[in-house]
Amino acid sequence: MERYPEWASYTLGVFVCHSCSGLHRNIAQISKVKSILLDPWSSSELEFMDSLGNNACKAKYEQIVPAFYYCPTQKDCMLLRDQWIRAKYERKEFVCVERQEPYSAGYREGFLWKRGRDNGQYLSRKFILSEREGVLKYFNKHDAREPKAIMKINTVNATFQPTKIGTAHGLQITYLKDNSTRNIFVYHEDGKEMVDWFNAIRAARFHYLQVAFPGTPNSELLSKLSRNYIKEGYMEKTGPKHTEGFKKRWFTMDDRRLMYFKDPLDAYARGEVFIGSKENSYTVLPGLPPNIQGYHWLFGITIVTPDRKFLFACETEEDQKDWIAAFQTVISRPMMPQEYAVEAYFKHKP
């Protein structure tokens, strides 16, 4: 929320930012909003606001928010913020634990629209999430016995991607298949359904990590339940010999994996690059080495790894600065013990 919010719900007694004031209007039967500066306020309304306020409302409406439940911020997509407001004030999910069953039960099944890998068509697919089995799976036919894909919870990630997918409720699910990233794009018309799936996946990941890393503080585990990408966008790239022409590709920086795709909604990456830390001889430099040809975009980036150099070109100087900042974030972070195994796999990849 903004530091000095300029809107308030005079029926709930909370101060909200301009963006969330619009979402509160979606539940007008519960929350009525006014501008603090522009609208008239009666003395009884002011007394009501004074008697409550955000801390009192938080204590009332957020009594039992599950540790794994994603509490959105101003930076998050509209769907997450809208459903958080509805869950809190309209459905009162965090006052009554029974109302949390859709994402707390450890098992969930339902139908989602899934994008076809080859033709881009969205078709209804049955999905099952089972904490006991430690998997998320989906079925191509409604009566199929065998799932089309089994995704192990330990590698699953989910992130809302409304702009990229082109629908407000679009969710990108990724998992590792033979240590390569596989993308699945899904949505559902019902916003609650989609956010319940998202939090059910987070719950399954939380309980998996609690078992896999006993004794680790919950605060450490919670940051690993789901992740947004560090950066995405188009760059040009050339091949390992640096002699081929540069080709425009869609890049995704997912933790330490830099992946590139021909199309942003491709199921598989064309390639993945592991980005380690500066202590392990990874660096990022602006510009390209001399004598390099074949690029169309002028703002180059060179990533130096212990084995080779990767060359990229950005369309604008601003893009170049943003990508360098994203790479620096990753390179300046020391590697975790388990990341050395991932690095070793990339080095020995055929």
Automatic annotation (TrEMBL):
InterPro entries: Arf-GAP_dual-PH_domain, ARFGAP/RecO, ArfGAP_dom, ArfGAP_dom_sf, PH-like_dom_sf, PH1_ADAP, PH2_ADAP, PH_domain. Pfam families: ArfGap (PF01412), PH (PF00169). Keywords: Cytoplasm, GTPase activation, Metal-binding, Repeat, Zinc, Zinc-finger. Residues 105-206, 228-332 form the PH domain. It comes from the Eukaryota. Residues 1-102 form the Arf-GAP domain. Its main location: cytoplasm. GO terms for cellular component: cytoplasm; plasma membrane. One of its GO terms (molecular function) is GTPase activator activity. It is found in: Cytoplasm. This is Arf-GAP with dual PH domain-containing protein 1. It comes from Dicentrarchus labrax. The lineage of its organism: Eukaryota, Metazoa, Chordata, Craniata, Vertebrata.
